[in-house]
Design a protein that fits this description.
The structure holds three protein chains of three kinds. Chain B is α+β, with helices and mostly antiparallel strands. Helices cover about 30% and strands about 25% of the residues of chain B. In chain C, about 35% of the residues lie in helices and about 15% in strands. Classes of the chains: A alpha+beta, B alpha+beta, C alpha+beta.
Chain lengths: ~270, ~800, ~160
Amino acid sequence: MLVEHGADATVLAGGQSLMPMLSFRQARPSFLIDINRVEALDFVRDEGESLLLGATTRQRDVETNPVAAAAIPLLPELLGHVGHVTNRNRGTVGGSLAHADPAAELPTLVTALDGELMVEGPRGPRTIAAEDFFLAPHRTSMGFDEVLTAVRLPRLPAGTAVAVEQIARRHGDLAVVGVIAAIRLGPDGAIDLVRLAASGVGPVPVRLHAVETALTGVAPTTEAIDAVAEAVSAAVQPPDDIHAPASYRRDMACLLVKRAVGEALRRSEVSE
Amino acid sequence: MTTTTEPVESRTKYTGARIRRTEDPRLLAGRGQYIDDVTVPKMLEAAVLRSTHAHARIRNIDVTRARALPGVFDVIVGTDLAELAEPQPVIWFPIPEQRIARVHALAVERVRWVGQAVAAVVATDRYVAEDALELIEVDYEPLPVVADLDAALAPGAPRLFADWPDNVSGALTYRNGDADKAFATADLVVSGTFDHGRTFGCPLEPRGCIVNWDSFEGTLDVWLGTQSPNLARDLFGEVFGIPVHKIRVRTPNLGGGFGNKFDFYPEEVIAAVLSRRTGRPVKLLESRAESFAATGHSRDQRMDFEMALRSDGTIVGLRGTAYGVLGGALGTVGSGPPWASVLTCMGPYKIPNLELNLKAVVTNRSPYGSYRGWGAPKGNLVHERLIEMAARELRMDRATIRRKNFPAPDEFPYFTGAIFTFDSGRYADCLDLAMSKVEELGWRDRQAQARAEGRCVGIGYSFHIEPSGYGPSRILNLAGLTHSGFDEATVRMDSTGRVTIYTGQINMGQGTHTVYSQLAADTLGIPMEDVLVVTGDTDSCPYTGYGTGGSRATALGGAAVLRAGERLRAKILRVAGQLLEASPDDLDIDDGTISVRGTTGPTVTTRDVGDAAYRRLRDRLPEEEMPTLEEVDVFDPVNMATSFGCAVLLAEVDPETGTVTLLDCLQAHDCGTVVNPMLVDGQLAGGLAQAMGGALLEELVYDGDGRLHTGSFRDYLLPTASDIPPFSFFHQETPAPDIPGGMKGVGEAGTIAGVSLVASAIDDALRDHGVTVTRFPVTPHRLLAQIREAAENGAAR
Amino acid sequence: MTDRQTVSMTINGHVYTDEVEPRLTLADFIRRHCGLTGTHLGCEHGVCGACTIMVDGKTARACLMLAVQADGCTLTTVEGLAEGERLTPLQEAFWNNHGLQCGFCTPGMLMCATELLQTDPDPTAEKVRTCLSGNLCRCTGYDSIVTSVLSAAERLRS
């Protein structure tokens, strides 16, 4: 159907983002393709090196799934920030990713973890790296005739600690700024692995590569962590909106990176 | 009519008790009936096209395609409506010689705010009506926009109304004593500019109506989600030139009102015109998205004030100007709320010298309307912010400086210096009650512990006054209201001895039915289950002045119920006296049974009395008595009833992000006789939560082009369960001397106290940073900017 | 408009079947086609939570689903909570603790709290607040709702 109707058709997943747009008549597709009952896309699968989540898997099902939590320990906490339980009962993993809101949690997570998005279309299946998937707010590199089928989230190496920090106006709102951090300390006590991604600070979720580089191999001192602020600031292009000006988002991105890294470090100490 | 207060004997079985509401079971079972749940036969549904421009001339509106859409019955524009309807009415004229900007329910020739109604469609259902809206083409010629207060007052500003010299609708000044002299000789002057953002009541149920215009009967049959059915009826009559006896307004369950549903809106008139033209009943509901522009906006005000004090903390003067930021037309209540902010800005404090200015200014924003608090929240900002600033300057304790300036209980009735005379009060007792609870609940320890951990935790205070029970009719008339303030109730006992109360008050969630049942049951000596309260129909219920607003339902409506009940009780006893062959003076009623006081002899029940008054009269109803058992009372108060309270808040600020977390809240409160403490607590909590929303989250955001950026609940942020703290409430009771029963209003208390309360807690949390918040809502980025500014200033010093 | 489709679903134990436009929301189907007006619409964009119902045992916002999506599903609305004239312990607790004023948000609150108590019979006050933070109430200030839920939880446990 997507092939036949092209841009005139829209895929309806959990409806937690698309339905309000339809209600406001902001989206006006001639055809809605409801994939909610495509059972083949509703799964949580541990593939050893990674966790594979079907596109129509409900967010709440992932949040409460022990297999998912074992593979990606951050998932339950992170999903707790996605709307409210009732939203997550309906909202799907694929729906949130395809909706590509730069302030949303799941797009930021796949960006932080080097996740891969599996899509299928008339030209067959293909896999898109997270950082190539998100192009702009609500725009992805999927063709109009393609559909997201699953997302692969690579497991982090053993000993990696993770943290999520957010500033939202209210619980359950899209974050004004959010940061996901993953840190592992090497045998010498220096940081030997770091992953950082931020939401709400650009047209897409932002992977903070320069900051990761700056922190890798460094002893996790307060000074070292404070020193990354400039790199964070350079990496983000936050928007202005009624909830916060760009300058505030930029400052908060720097702050939340520090807090998230600090929290991950605390957690890695606890786990040792 | 002159009303004197009759003494009411105290018989309180129900009054003062935590009684669960009679209203609740059906609401809990999903059996309530709100406006969208009402359908009438042959009903059509309408939708409104709204202006996308803040200020523009309408060159042309093409409705051809909309009209041709299958399912569409009619499409109207402003000129169609103006043939049948007068411009929208205004009932409050507090400013003498004020320029009143009245417009029709649909814009004619010109739009003056985003969201102003420009066309309307009526169709088989709302889906089709909205389809048709998309087919209407409006050709606008944009005009220069007056987006905010500064733009409106700027020299050479574009004018909203060509025949006005500027954008000022009106101005007035209240003077008492000699403010200039007081300021010249004061030891300390503190001043501030306090800006409250635009917010609104935002009841969770949007507004709506069903109107059936029967051209052949000449009648208008209306279902309307309103707090003021009698006012709506009168205003329908004015707008359409229909005699009011041909207008019936029925009100179903209200999903919240908060003042927003007090006002009379264009949609009511649009639906009526569509009904007349189609010959069908027309339902018109606003969508939530529309509500952000179409429901009355409030609070938008700047308060530019200064307070003069002696070095011992005695306040000697207050002066300043309140700027009401009105919209592109005057709403039903005109500039009433900004006016009330001026009248309340001295608050509970004795301030001998006043110069209080009001300036009402029009802008290209939605019209200003009623919202719970009605001006008083901004008045409260003035006195509570300034007194705390003075306390800091004078290094005085915040409670001490407040206590020092209260009028003593024997100084009541106390004239404020501007219109209001406060009837009774024990302000210091109330403050002490609050302070003692802060100690008891261990908040100081909580604060000290948190601060020891490096957390910025503060305790905030707000003392408020709430002039309630609006109000003495003739005084309100004198102040510029073209409406009355009395309340009427009918208390009727039927042939089975059961009682029905009819009142013009509206039950919008505050529990009026329960309260009236309690009062009537106590007065009559019958079980509460024997009382039914009927509201919401102008055909069967009495007239009420004003409506359900101004915190008057319990004070004034309750007084009318009590007084009618007293007279009915006397008649019941007279009938029972005949039945028992005893003097009515020797009789008592308890639980519906009438007996000779102090004896165990024969008894009769209200059922016997009902039977004697309605059915088997012979030898049983005294010859001189009129059959039936019914009493009517109209209560017009001689003064307002001013309640008061002291709220305290524990809050934490994250100084690195500017986010504020509300941890715990209490309020000591005095609303005279407490009829049902559970319901009073509910009113206090709900009001405080709304104010906390206004203090931290809610704002209708306009840009420099007058475009509204808050069009959904994702942008207009109502507080959630995670944002609002737990509450504890403590009551003292200083009866209202002018109200039978002694009740004062409580509906607006929380909204009045809450914004300055949050501000006080933030200041205290950030006491090491030296921050005074003055602009609301206090959003994280605004607060962070202030914290940084204070740090820079501190470093500079 | 696309052709009407036949939908059939079980609501509160009764089967409702009708022909609807695909664009009809589930909320409007429940209210307009089934006459179950206890499910309220406060925003129609999925934020206020007043229209929350149970779809196959889990809460969902009826304004964020199309009627055609619920074809074959089993639904519970607020009207389906009480057993005849007997209110549930949760409804009773709302009544006893003044957990409602205007009653407009109440159906959604009851649905979300019912789901919470099914999954966590002994929630903390904070958890109740978090759980209900997707349901807006403009009247109560929430505290009495939290008290109601905690009191119902206690009664249900005993």
